[in-house]
Structure formats: C-alpha cells, structure tokens
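[Help] Beginner question about ligand-bound structures

Sorry if this is basic. My supervisor gave me a protein sequence and a SMILES string for adenosine-5'-triphosphate and asked me to "get the holo structure". I don't really know what that means in practice or what format the answer should be in. Inputs are pasted below exactly as I got them.
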Amino acid sequence: MTILYNLFFLLFITFVFLFLFRVVLIKTGLIFTVKKKWRLFEDCFHVYQLFKVPKFNESMQRNQLYHKVFVYLNSLTSVEDSDFTNLFTGKKPNEILLRLDPNQIIEDDFLGAKILWINEDNNLVLKIRKADKRRVLRPYLQHIHTISDDLDEKKRDLKLYVNVVGHGDDHKGRWRCVPFTHPSTFETIAMESDVKNKVKSDLESFLKAKQYYHRLGRVWKRSYLLYGPSGTGKSSFIAALANFLSYDVYDIDLSKVSDDSDLKLLLLQSTAKSVIVIEDLDRYLSEKSTAVSLSGILNFMDGMLTSSCSEERVMVFTMNGKDHVDQAVLRPGRIDVHIHFPLCDFTAFKTLANSYLGLKDHKLFPQVEEIFQNGSSLSPAEIGELMIANRNSPSRALKSVIHALQTDGDGRGALNIGRRSTENGPRKLSGEMGEGSGVFGKEGANAVKEFKKLYGLLRVKSSRKSQSFDLNGDRKEGG
Ligand SMILES: Nc1ncnc2c1ncn2[C@@H]1O[C@H](COP(=O)(O)OP(=O)(O)OP(=O)(O)O)[C@@H](O)[C@H]1O
Ligand SMILES: [Mg+2]
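Answer (accepted):
No worries, everyone starts somewhere. Holo just means with the ligand present. The predicted complex, written as structure tokens, is below.
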C-alpha cells in the first residue's frame, strides 16, 4: 500500500514539475531559446546549400528576381514573428508596412522543407538543405513568382474608365481614365454578411477557375446583376467589388454608344482583370428607340468577341427592378449571380448606426426595431444621410430616423434625398424577385433557399429554362 502511495505521489510531483516547467518555458520566452539551440544542434547533421539572389546583375541593372523575393519575404508572417524588423508607413492612410532589416534571417516552409533567407547587403541568400533542394527549389521559386505577382497586382493604383462619344470612324481612345479611389469595401456596405461572404467566395473561386473555363471553351467571365431601389448600395457594391479584386472599372454609358459594333469595340478596348459596368440597364432596355439593340446587348453580355476576352473579366449590371426585363437578358450564363438590394431593415440600420454614429446599441433601438417590424420604405442612403447630418448627436440622429420612418420619409424637410419615385414605381417592401430566380439578398430568407432549391432542380434537369446559377456548384467544378 505504501509503495502504491509513493508511486502515486511521485507521479503527482512529476506532473506538477512538468506543468510548472512548461509554464516557465512559455511565459519567460525561454522556449524560443530552447528551440533555437535545438535547431543549431539539428543543423549539425544536415548539409546546406546557399543560393544568392543579387539586387543587380553584371551590367548593374535591377534583378527582377530580387524584387520578387523581397516582396514575397515581406509578406510572410515570419517577418512579423521574427526577433526584430522595420516598420514603415505605407501609401494608404494608417497603413503600416513591415520591412526586412539588413542581416535579418527569415524562415519559410515549403512542401515540408525548411528554407532560410538571409537579407545581406544587396543580396538575398537562400539556404536550403541539400536533401530538399532537388524536390523543392524549382516549385518554390515558381511559388515566389506567383505570390509576388499577385501582391504587386494588388498594390497598383486602380483606374476608372468612362466612355466618351466617338467622332466619325475614330474609335480609338474612346475610354477616358481617372484614378479610381472609391473607398467602399464589403465591410462598409450594410448587407447580410452571408451574402457578402457568398459573393467573396464566388469571386475567389472564379479567379481560380481559369483552366476550367478554358477547358470548357467558355469565356472567362462572371456576370452579376445588382437590382433594387435607388440608394440601396448597388454602385457602392460595384466599387467594393473592384477594390476587393483590385480590378480597374470600365463604366459604360450606353447613351454615348453609337451602335452595336461600337459597343463591341468598347469591350475590345478594355483590358483584362477589369470590372465592366452597365448601370440602369432596365431603364435603357425600356426606352423605345435606342442606338444599341437588344441583340447587341446580349452579344456584349456573352462576351463572344475575340481572344482578348479570354482574360478574366467581371461584368456587373444594375437595375431598379427586373420584372419587365426580357428573360433572355437574365438567363444563366448571361447573368451568373443575382443580388437583391432591399430597402433598409433593422439589421442594415444597426450596421449603418455603427459605422455612421459609432453606436453599437442605444436605448432608442427597440423603438426603431418595432417600426421596422411594421415595414419601412427608406433606403440605406436616406437613413445614412440623416445620420451624417446629425452625427454630432446620436440621439437626435436616431430620433430623426424614427420620425422619417414613421412619416415614410416625408418629414425629412431639407434633407429630402430625392427618391426616384418615377423610376422605381411605388416602393415595395418585399422585393421584386422574379419567379424562380436565384437571388442573393435580403428578399427574405427564402431567397437563398429558393435559389438552392432551384439549382437542385437545375442539376437534375440541366437543360430547362431558369434564371439562376448556384455558386456552390460552380465552385466544386471550377476549383
Ligand atoms: N447598403 C448600404 N450600406 C452602406 N451605405 C449605403 C448602402 N446603400 C446606400 N448607401 C450609401 O448611400 C449612398 C448611395 O448609394 P449607392 O449610390 O450605392 O446606391 P445605388 O443603389 O447605386 O442607387 P441608384 O440606384 O440611385 O444608383 C452612398 O453614399 C452609400 O454610401
Ligand atoms: Mg447607383
């Protein structure tokens, strides 16, 4: 019995000791020293090979590989975790950049191999185990190329192109370009986070699907329809989308397009990695005589032009409502994703109150919620404007929102943010989801469900007419 007792006591003491030892190791940072010593010990059993990437070549020209490796290394989390590194301000406000320090050593992992980089004067030196070199070096350098190209792409300044009226046969230079600096991001837009996440992952899977689209012989493009009343964030969403993708924006004003072939030329003159936008398409299509025909627009939406369209493009069309739009315009393939932009509801209101007034909660919120439950006919733009005008007094801002909601916006006085009542028709609280259409948005939780249900049917009877496309399905195939 005594032996058993002693054994148990010994086990307990060992456990306590190990626990305390672990705490001391972690809390004091001793663990890093132990790891370092262990690595040095381990290194004694390995042969390393060094590769130097000089900043300049023999003719003192810049070595592009040096730039790429530098960009890549500065993006690694190990820079952040290293013992020391440099901090600089970036181009954007509040941006802080991490930069390698001379003689800093950075560790990276690739395909299970440990790789070290040493930042010497005007050289970056790669240190790799000889045993790993043959297997890892080439794909690793390829990986650096790809990542640094992506990072460079993300850093460049975006441009907004607008089309101007052409003169005679001179179609050259029809696009006019200005810097695109719209600050909108998916985070600043008040809409269901589920919808935002779906759009983001849809875009990401689209970007990865180049080979897939090519194999199918399809133009590598993705088309979005944003529809909903005025002031619900459609244009802001386009800006957010362009910022998310770091793509230039080509905003096509159809009233400045002379005919179908002119429209084709505009598309041909756009560059890859761009968002092509046509706003208020429903209004244009409903006009009696237009310079561009319906078939011209359909061909444009198909992007069936030349090989120059084989590079990725995202097309975005906006409409106030799609009820009266020709079904051919909305069919899958022409429009891949339908996103509904509803009038403001309580969830959107809370997002706006948080971003415009810094309010997470307020004693007037329950009252606002109650009014929203009875319905509302104000857009996020209208509510946002009321908040901006009263931003110094959150209570006053909320009271004015309540008043505007109760009076259906009529009491907004000087702050009458023109509703395009003639364009939108009478405002509807429930959206205008067409029959059987697949929609992302707040048109009731049913919208997404319906969308999935519909695609369920679509997968079975893939040949039948329908108006939507399922992101999940595409992701599986494309990824
Ligand atoms: N959902 C939203 N979240 C945050 N801000 C919004 C939202 N909707 C509108 N706004 C704000 O309202 C203003 C107008 O929005 P926007 O131009 O994007 O609306 P729209 O749907 O394009 O309207 P229209 O159909 O009249 O062109 C913008 O300043 C934007 O910041
Ligand atoms: Mg707009």
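A couple of things worth pointing out: Confidence is low (pLDDT under 50) at residues 410-439, 441-479. Residues 234-235, 279 surround magnesium ion (ligand 2) (CB under 6 Å). Feel free to follow up in the thread.
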